[in-house]
Write a structure and sequence with these properties.
alpha/beta; single chain; seven-stranded parallel beta sheet; binds nicotinamide-adenine-dinucleotide; 16 helices; 2 domains; globular; Dihydrodipicolinate Reductase, domain 2; Rossmann fold
């Protein structure tokens, strides 16, 4: 198959910009630096560990994804970001208590050299945080200009030829799209008028796209999920993706729910609760930030189980999600799930899941993959919403009029088939030909 797109070769360094340099961002940076030195293995990262089958099973072709896609190596990336606390990546990682001193000390010098740029921070969007390392500006428009200058300076100082951003900042309060989000013109006017519908993350997203920097959103905030930003992404020909990294409980949910559906087993109720004690947990303790997360977590089952098609099996589900801030746990979250299911003739059964996970350990590989794949997409001329990256998100953005794909296995197939397609390889349908040859 002829390669349908031309992928620009990567030359020079890729700047990976992380607005929000807390637990997830610093775990990502430290992990990538450790992997670069051969002092750690980037487990959980498809781009670093995964292979991809090409052609027929008999051909035995399964290269590593990073070789197949000719991705930049970890030596070819530079990390930067913004935060409202002035702590270096080293200090922030120490505070987050995700990685041990043994790991952090191996890359201490490099982490100390990564200092956050001052944040755009209007506190009404993240009510639990109070930081001092923040920009000053007359209005939101001026703030966006400052972020654009930061990007230019960062790329130049770090010898980068291009950048990519992954939002690792706190979850903002829930905002419904309003008039200001409906067109680029309305949005730009809104920046100048300090429209309350424009949050911090939206200002970063706007500035990144203006600088041709692809933007992936790891939190459930609106950020790039609105017509104004879609218009800008189209105009600048830049990829965007989101929302909300699919890590612990929702990742489990999108594994289990397709399993029930594949076997036509019924579901009556799904109760999910979490305890976590990191800064993310503290922010989510605010009901308005929790609302953003709740909406993102709740949407999953509806789309996988299609209750309107399967009324008898899934037409009457009680789905509840809770997050409790519990400081003693730090980043080591515990997610409990209780599923009330039913089988043959309606007989009830239960499934219990107790996932003792580590939030940032699960999220870090997704940040790295997203940065490398968004950059690849950009070099391949992809722009707008990158549905092929739905695999990474709890609440995948999708084209207007379509529905999101939540099933992890369909997402994985879509991701890998897009990789095959962009490199001019046959798509894999898993249709055997032994039956009709
Ligand atoms: N860890 C996971 O498994 C996971 C999964 C899905 C989504 N997320 C999301 O990823 C984000 C990061 O999670 P975390 O555990 O690193 O949280 P964290 O609280 O440790 O880090 C977030 C950082 O963002 C900073 N921040 C907030 N607003 C900012 C702004 N306007 N500009 C710059 N910095 C800002 C905070 O000061 C903080 O340092 C959160 O929104 C979280 O909900 C995490």
């Amino acid at each position: 198959m002829k390669q349908p797109v031309t992928i620009k070769k990567h030359e020079g360094k890729l700047g990976i910009l992380l607005p929000g340099m807390g637990a997830v961002a610093t775990t990502t940076i430290a992990g990538a630096l450790l992997a670069r030195k051969g002092k750690g293995t980037p487990i959980g990262s498809l781009t670093q560990m995964g292979t991809i089958r090409l052609g027929k099973r008999t051909e035995n072709r399964a290269p590593f994804i990073k070789d197949f896609l000719k991705l930049p190596s970890l030596d070819d990336v530079a990390f930067g970001g913004w935060d409202l606390f002035p702590d270096s990546a080293y200090e922030s990682a120490k505070h987050a208590e995700v990685l041990t001193n043994e790991h952090l000390d191996e890359v201490k010098g490099e982490l100390e050299a990564i200092k956050p740029m001052p944040a755009v921070f209007y506190p009404e969007y993240v009510k639990r945080l109070h930081g001092t390392h923040v920009k000053k500006g007359a209005d939101k428009w001026e703030m966006a200009q400052q972020v654009e200058t930061d990007i230019q300076t960062f790329l130049k100082t770090n010898g980068c030829t291009r950048g990519v951003a992954v939002w690792c900042g706190s979850t903002e309060v829930y905002i419904e799209p309003s008039a200001v989000h409906q067109s680029l013109k309305a949005f730009e006017d809104g920046l100048k008028n300090n429209d309350p519908g424009i949050s911090n993350s939206q200002i970063y997203a706007y500035a990144c796209l203006k600088q041709n920097v692809p933007f992936a959103n790891g939190a459930p905030n609106l950020s790039v999920d609105m017509p104004a930003i879609w218009e800008l992404a189209r105009e600048r020909s830049v990829p965007i993706s989101g929302k909300d990294f699919k890590t612990g409980q929702t990742w489990m949910k999108t594994i289990l729910a397709p399993g029930l559906k594949a076997r036509m087993l019924g579901l009556r109720g799904w109760f999910s609760t979490n305890i976590l004690g990191n800064r993310d947990g503290e922010v989510l303790d605010d009901p308005e930030s929790f609302k953003s997360k709740e909406v993102s977590k709740l949407g999953v089952l509806e789309h996988i189980l299609q209750p309107s098609k399967y009324k008898e099996l899934y037409g009457n589900i009680y789905h509840k999600v809770r997050i409790e801030y519990y400081p003693p746990r730090g980043d080591a979250k515990e997610g409990w799930d209780n599923l009330d299911i039913f089988g043959w003739l309606g007989y009830p059964m239960q499934i219990k899941v107790d996932f003792l996970c580590r939030d940032s350990i699960l999220a870090a590989p997704l940040v790295l993959d997203l940065a490398l794949l968004m950059d690849l997409g950009s070099r391949a001329g992809f722009h707008g919403i990158q549905e092929w990256l739905s695999f990474y998100f709890k609440s995948p953005m999708h084209a207007p009029g379509l529905y999101p794909e939540h099933d992890l296995f369909i997402q994985s197939m879509k991701l890998k088939n897009t990789m095959r397609w962009m490199m001019g390889e046959e798509l894999i349908t898993h249709l055997g030909n032994e039956y009709y040859d």
